[in-house]
Amino acid sequence: xxxxxxxxxxxxxxxxxxxxxxxxxxxxxxxxxxxxxxxxxxxxxxxxxxxxxxxxxxxxxxxxxxxxxxxxxxxxxxxxxxxxxxxxxxxxxxxxxxxxxxxxxxxxxxxxxxxxxxxxxxxxxxxxxxxxxxxxxxxxxxxxxxxxxxxxxxxxxxxxxxxxxxxxxxxxxxxxxxxxxxxxxxxxxxxxxxxxxxxxxxxxxxxxxxxxxxxxxxxxxxxxxxxxxxxxxxxxxxxxxxxxxxxxxxxxxxxxxxxxxxxxxxxxxxxxxxxxxxxxxxxxxxxxxxxxxxxxxxxxxxxxxxxxxxxxxxx
Length: 315
Ligand code: NDP
Fold this sequence. Notes:
By secondary structure, the chain is of the alpha/beta class. It has helices spanning 18-26, 74-77, 94-112, 115-123, 147-159, 187-191, 213-218, 236-245, 285-300; strands spanning 6-11, 31-34, 46-50, 65-68, 88-89, 139-143, 162-167, 178-182, 196-199, 223-227, 248-253, 273-275. Helix 1 crosses helix 9 and helix 3 (94-112) crosses helix 5. The chain starts with 5 loop residues before the first strand and ends in a 15-residue tail after the last helix. Bound molecules: NADPH dihydro-nicotinamide-adenine-dinucleotide phosphate. NADPH dihydro-nicotinamide-adenine-dinucleotide phosphate binds at residues 70-72, 144-149, 167-169, 200-204, 206-207, 228-230, 254-255, 278, 280-281, 315.
């Protein structure tokens, strides 16, 4: 009988202990290892990663698959010793998309409808209406029309917002009511119609620092920025002047260059910045285990794994 796979759980950022039970549920008797002592390194078949320690993946001589435990892979591609001949895969999951739809819809609505003012009125027992702008007259732009961006575009169009999206390549199958833009040539036109801009790009050398002073200047005055991509999409030093000048009216931020956001960071407590601690959505632990094991099985059968990353594109 073939021995069960040996899975290494690797992270320099979080405890990955929570995944061990999910792998045991997905395949009882499986050999899951984590921490500094992984036993004989030649045993490891698959590594499941979130910010793996640099150089670690290169130490497994029989590794067959590098699996991100999330949608993004920037945290793995950052390893200069990444064994690039191996397949690198990510998780794509309806539950994750549903969580992102809920967060982004909330973030758009809470600012567009002035919900912060209602919380203050409620606390002060004041019956006070905020101006109501129809969603039809509020334009939401989504940078990144991948699995998550498309799900958010669809949800916001269903609520009634005017939705546009921007991607690298042209899209022929956008959800009803969503206008598509693509490539560097159409970026300015896209940005000029974003009363709210949502960043759902992957972090690559091309998208690092995408959210900067030049880009803010191309948005309509008073735009709302929502960053649910990665912290390094935003040039943090450019945000405060854009808010101070009124070019941006608010920012809702879920991802930061340094996480947890340091206690003395100027974003905390800023009246126009809403900070959430990278919780826009989460990957279901059982889905991580199931997709990892399914990918290993198809690789062993000589087929292509699901959701493999194009290393040249970086996503
Ligand atoms: P996908 O890989 O499915 O989609 C990426 C999209 O970005 C595609 O539409 C792609 O264009 C576009 N894109 C990539 N590079 C460029 C570029 N240079 N110019 C223009 N468009 C570009 O990613 P997902 O939707 O699954 O996830 C997006 C990101 O969301 C993840 O990488 C991760 O960083 C973040 N995330 C954040 C979470 C949170 O809780 N805050 C949770 C999960 C993910 P094209 O379609 O033409 O290829």
